[in-house]
Design brief:
Layout (H helix, E strand, L loop, with lengths): L8 H11 L2 H7 L13 H6 L5 H5 L5 E3 L9 H16 L2 E5 L5 H15 L18 E4 L15 E7 L14 H25 L6 H4 L6 E7 L21 E4 L8 E4 L2 E4 L7 E5 L1 H18 L1
Parallel strand pairs: 1-2
Antiparallel strand pairs: 2-9, 3-4, 4-5, 6-9, 7-8
Length: 298
């Protein structure tokens, strides 16, 4: 067995990228050991251990019922805005139910994601790229991986909708219809959330729209193959989203965790729910609002 100094990190990453087959390709090849650039250190793995079951009961991500969000919805809309404000300030996350996105569209996007990633690698190779400037791409490593980084044990298919628009013909036929339909609903939900979040900041309903902070959409369809060494890998490494807002649909397998008050908290799937993750750009606004509220109450 070689030492760390013998390990040719760059060569291993380069050889993996050249296959254009992703993590699914590694599994299909029959590997029994995970490539080193996917392996998390012991300290990273232990820091991602969730709380005990008893503690998790006391720390559950807020669930917000969107019934009554219509303009002029009266007291219930005001309550929803306040629930969003509190969840955004204290958690940076909340789950949405009765949000208007049909269950069928959510199930179809999950199924089409599975179909895309479980194609033979030859059907996906031409789309493989780590270049984020590509509007439609398949990738495992996003951008440039350095020796201090750990790669996520997952594959991704991504589409960028600039100003909410993309030519459907550039989306692979195997998932074109489902993505097109899902994005129609996401754009409608985006407009609703833009208003609610603007109000939660104490600003006019059209603030985020005027600032163009939610103008374009980036859809990522993630696929997490089983790992031959699950104790050494993460499906997604610890991160925050450098965007305005992320809306996530989970399958029934679960596995999502968020970092809250120094602990990792599980987010169990709720049938029909969508998860809102306040991105870094928007979180700053809520942080400033929270500071202002604290300062005047003192």
């Amino acid at each position: 067995m070689g030492t760390d100094s013998d390990y040719e990190w760059e060569k291993e990453v380069e050889e993996f990228q050249k296959t254009k087959a992703g993590v699914k390709g590694l599994i299909d090849s029959g590997i029994t050991k995970v490539p080193r650039f996917f392996v998390s250190s012991a300290s990273q793995r232990f820091s991602n251990v969730a709380q005990t079951k008893d503690e998790q009961i006391q720390a559950q991500i807020p669930v917000i019922d969107f019934r009554g969000i219509e303009k002029g919805g009266g007291a219930r809309r005001i309550e929803i805005v306040e629930e969003i404000r509190r969840a955004s300030e204290t958690w940076g996350f909340f789950q949405m139910v009765n949000h208007g996105v049909p269950m069928s569209a959510m199930e179809d996007i999950l199924e089409s994601t599975r179909r895309f990633h479980e194609q033979p690698k030859e059907a996906k190779m031409d789309l493989y790229s780590s270049d984020g400037r590509q509007n439609v791409r398949f990738y495992t490593i996003n951008g440039h991986l350095t020796k201090s980084d750990v790669a996520s044990w997952r594959d991704a298919f991504a589409c960028t909708f600039l100003d909410g628009v993309m030519d459907p013909d550039v989306i692979p036929p195997i998932c074109r219809e489902e993505i097109t339909e899902y994005m129609k609903h996401m754009i409608n939900l985006r407009d609703i959330l833009s208003e609610l979040l603007s109000e939660a900041l104490g600003l006019s309903q059209d603030f985020l729209e005027k600032m163009q902070l939610m103008k374009s959409e980036y859809l990522t369809c993630l696929y997490y193959p089983s790992s031959p060494e699950p104790d050494k890998t993460f499906g997604t490494v610890k991160h925050s989203d450098p965007t305005t807002l992320t809306v996530l649909v989970q399958d029934n397998c679960g596995g999502l965790q968020i970092h809250h008050c120094g602990n990792w908290v599980d987010v169990p799937p709720i049938p029909g729910a969508l998860i809102a993750n306040i991105g870094d750009l928007l979180q700053v606004h809520f942080y400033i609002l929270d500071m202002f509220i604290i300062s005047i109450s003192n």
